[in-house]
Design brief:
By secondary structure, this protein is an alpha/beta fold. It folds into two domains: 191 residues, Rossmann fold; 154 residues, 3-Layer(aba) Sandwich (Molybdenum Cofactor Biosythetic Enzyme, Chain A), CATH 3.40.980. Helix content is 34%, strand content 20%. The chain is built from eleven helices and 17 strands. α1 packs parallel to α6. The protein is globular and about 55 Å long. It starts with a strand and ends in a 14-residue tail after the last strand.
Length: 370
């Protein structure tokens, strides 16, 4: 077993997809189960929004349980632009596995996210000059990797601008070093590991005409990147969260009407988008509360309309939705595009969940044929 510890569900799903492409079976768990038999087990600790001390405690507990199962290899999945308590979580995993140092490579050259001279660039633009500078929970106000991480004894963060850089670091990895980073470094590690020839797997099959697709966006970063425009251009009905749901007290009547409108659109159009939207919440409203309201609406929609595919944008959103639906284990299936994890719940008649980070757009390959 190869074990992966991710701080959110979109990262775990993305890694599972990379494993599948490499010919390995993969599962995603919200609660680690040692008896699982997949080649790669990705565990979502749902810790990105936690303070450093709490994140380290949660991740350390999961890492110790995984270490007791004696995996052949462990990887710490981090956000590609270092959101969350990255250093604290990496150090917690290193301690659990007795590693002396950490090699952290968050760059994703395949998505034009690179580190050069210690600075992070996205599509050739400094990170602090992108829409991620306005992330409501983890604003990227600096592009300097050392400043993004904070004091990091024992963590190495070298430059990486090309896929070849990641392969070179993967080949030099020793048994005393914990590998950590984004999906491209994980792919490089898999490519350098001796294993059996890749197993063939079926390609992704788009939803058939007439099957319904529910899109869910809880990512402010996505909204700032004109996600609404992407859906409007395809004439997919958009349903932003009513402001009446921004308060602490649940308005079940408003929630029910909002979900009902989306369900009606699904019946008539075959697709609909539920989103928090770009409005500024009230000071007492937390991102977690808004995400919970969004997850509750998704549950109501799925109770009213059979849906073939649910597209979840943003790791916190994805975790909130699957927890609201009481789902804990998934099998990876072929993905419709880069950066997207396709997960099928292990039990019950549930839709296919397609999950990605909020900072990437949905590729053209995901759109339901008309």
């Amino acid at each position: 077993m190869i074990a992966v510890i991710a701080d959110d569900l979109s990262g775990a799903a993305e890694i599972a997809n990379a494993a599948l492409l490499a010919g390995l079976s993969a599962e995603v768990h919200l609660r680690f189960r040692a008896e699982a038999r997949a080649d790669v087990i990705c565990v979502d600790t749902a810790s990105r929004s936690l303070p450093a001390e709490a994140a380290a405690a949660r991740v350390g507990e999961v890492a110790r349980a995984i270490a007791a199962a004696s995996p052949v290899f462990v990887y710490k999945k981090c956000d590609s632009v270092l959101r969350g308590s990255v250093a604290a979580e990496c150090l917690a995993v290193a301690r659990a596995f007795g590693k002396k140092q950490i090699l952290l490579l968050p760059a994703n050259p395949s998505r034009r996210r690179i580190i050069r001279a210690g600075y992070y660039f996205v599509d050739g633009v400094l990170l602090s000059q992108t829409a991620l500078a306005c992330d409501p929970e983890h604003p990227r106000h600096t592009s300097h990797v050392a400043e993004l991480l904070g004091p990091t004894p024992g963590i190495l963060t070298p430059d990486a601008a090309f896929g070849e850089d990641l392969v070179r670091f993967a080949l030099k990895l020793d048994a005393h070093t914990l590998p950590a980073g984004a999906v491209d470094f994980f792919k490089a590690l898999l490519a350098t590991m001796p294993r059996h020839p890749a197993k063939p797997h079926p390609g992704h099959h788009a939803a058939a005409s007439g099957e319904k697709s529910l899109y869910v966006c809880g990512s402010n970063a996505a909204w700032l990147c004109d996600r609404a425009g992407q859906f409007a251009a395809r004439r997919i009905p958009i349903f932003p969260m009513p402001r009446a749901l921004f308060g602490r007290d649940l308005r079940e009547d408003i929630l029910g009407r909002w979900a009902g409108f989306a369900a009606a659109a699904l019946r008539g159009h075959g697709a609909a988008l539920l989103a928090i939207g770009g409005e500024e919440p009230a000071p007492e409203t937390t991102p977690a509360l808004l995400t919970l309201r969004l997850a509750q609406a998704v549950e109501l929609v799925l109770e009213q309309v059979p849906v073939a595919r649910v597209f979840l944008e943003g790791g916190a959103t994805a975790t909130a939705v699957v927890r609201q639906l009481a789902l804990e284990e998934f099998q990876a299936e072929p993905s419709p595009g880069p950066g997207i994890g396709a997960l099928r719940p292990g039990a019950g008649e549930a839709p296919l969940f397609l999950i990605k980070p909020g900072s990437y757009p949905w590729p053209d390959s995901v759109w339901q044929p008309k």
